[in-house]
Amino acid sequence: MVTFLGFPIEIRNICVFLAPVFSAFTSLTGYMITKEITGKSESGLFTALFLSVVPSYISRSVAGSYDNEAIAIFALVFTFYLFIKALNTGSLFWSSLASLALFYMVASWGGYSFIVNIIPIFIVGLILIGRLTTNVYITYCTFHILGSILAMQIPFVGFQAITSSEHLASHTVFVFMNVYMFCEWIKNQIGEKRFSNLKKFVILGTLNLIVIFALFAMLTGKMKWSGRSLSLLDPTYASKFIPIIASVSEHQPTSWALFFFDLHLLLVLAPIGLYFCLVEYNEGKLFLALYGVLSAYFASVMNRLLLVFAPALCILSGIGVSETIYKFVRHITNYKSWQEYVKSRKNAKAARPRYGIPIEISIILIILIGYAISNYIYHSVWATAEGYSSPSIVMSYQHNGEKIIIDDFREAYYWLRMNTKENSHIMSWWDYGYQITGMGNRTVLVDNNTWNNSHIATVGMIFGCDEEDAAFYLRKLDVNYVLVIFGGYSAYSSDDINKFLWMVRIAAGVYPEIKEEDYEADGVYRIDSQVTQKMKDSLMYKLSYYRFGGVGGYDTARRVHIGDKDFVLKHLKEVYTSLHWIVRIYEVLPEEFREFERSRSSYAELSENVLLKQNLTKIKIRPIDE
């Protein structure tokens, strides 16, 4: 479309700049929703400022981050803006636009379920406090009906918009609100006294029928909760029943350090904004308060949802800063007006205004607020540069004052592209599937699609087997190469050994013969001298620590000496180990040919040729030709 308009652009540039462009749209939308809620442009400007630099959102919208979540957050905030606009006007036009925005959100991200649940909760709250108006009724009916119909047009959702438990609250509130409004209409027709008992009977009966229907649908399997939704309601659910969800670092509970690193000053300013929203409230401010409280809970349960929490915090902070500064500035303005009045009428005696605090303190506090905001901007720029701007496959760190670039991933994928056949099949853990496919141009056994975890469980089972059994499964699956990530040499902690326990747990859900306790020593995950025999014989252990004894056998990531430093491989052959030993690739030998077992003496001679160095850049393991 851009080319059609006369601006030729490469698809690569679109992928690079798409996320920053949508982040700019999000900042503009943040300004509009804040102005719509408060009626003040100043609050909207502060919101736009905070949204433009908050690290939680930049982590998904930095240039080159071609991710649907950068678009989804814009769709989320834009849907809320149109919904509040529809509430304020009671217009079918704005309600329809809100439904279209929801449709865009559904098409972009599965997190749309947050919208279809928070809005019904908000409607119930309005009913309970007696603020269910005609505007609210028109807006929600239009939004629910059109939104559900449009959501069903997305193949990803389909008829789940009706049968899924994530949509149950939306349907329930829609039915209940219509029954409630019908009762209100009858009351106006026949009088409140004659209708009081009938109203209670109708409303309570409707609620009972809805609860019975919902229980029946869930017990009979007509409606089901997704694993991610249950993990939000019960933080322990995933670790008990769906380990593949719990294994992802983004699905872990959020630490206080991460809250402060990502949100910084907003954690202080947002409660102030929440206070001002509740002191002089309207429908928009009540919705914003609900959005902030619920998103805070979800963000504490799953650190990935800091992304949803950040816009709410920015809007509340914008309101808090604006209202606070306004009170101080108003006192200064009143004080100056009083001085001018006294000068113009020298003989008149005017009482000194008693609004607020002394003018000197007001000026100092405004300066301190400005300093705090500038410090927040400085922190956000630093946090973004350090934590969220580096490519995920190229790492850098300081070593003895020298900056070291670790490019092992990219070099390993390039080696796969150049040194393996085009029809080769690669087995690795699912975290690296898309990277191998995209950069190595090779077919993988599992990728980052986790909708069906049985094939991922199969890979976990193979890594947990001994080499003999693993080789049998690898040949049956037509696997040519096995790739493992190992950080014991370079102190890289996000390696496959640290992820191995999750591999076992995921595999155990499909293959009952895999038992987690077989890999633990007295209930503890060990790779040192107390390593269990099952763990020591596993394919993951052998592929990670093969020839590692020759460089000392000290695992710098786990800070222990490994339990088995002297073993050989029979069914797999090492073909590539990257510069810092982070990526190791092994070829699966044909069944009719197995690599001969080296004698202990020849293995010792090989190990003596490789010395452990302090400067990691001096060692490079070349592809082995045997």
UniProtKB/TrEMBL annotation:
Cross-referenced Gene3D superfamilies: 3.40.50.12610
Cofactors, names only: Mg(2+); Mn(2+)
Family under the similarity heading: Belongs to the STT3 family.
Highest taxon in the source lineage: Eukaryota
Membrane topology of the entry: Multi-pass membrane protein
Subcellular location: Endomembrane system
STT3/PglB/AglB core domain segment(s): 424-487
Transmembrane segments: 12-33, 45-63, 70-95, 101-129, 136-156, 168-186, 198-219, 256-279, 286-302, 308-329, 355-373
Name this polypeptide is given: dolichyl-diphosphooligosaccharide--protein glycotransferase
Main subcellular location: membrane
Record GO terms (molecular function): dolichyl-diphosphooligosaccharide-protein glycotransferase activity; metal ion binding
The enzyme's E.C. designation: 2.4.99.18
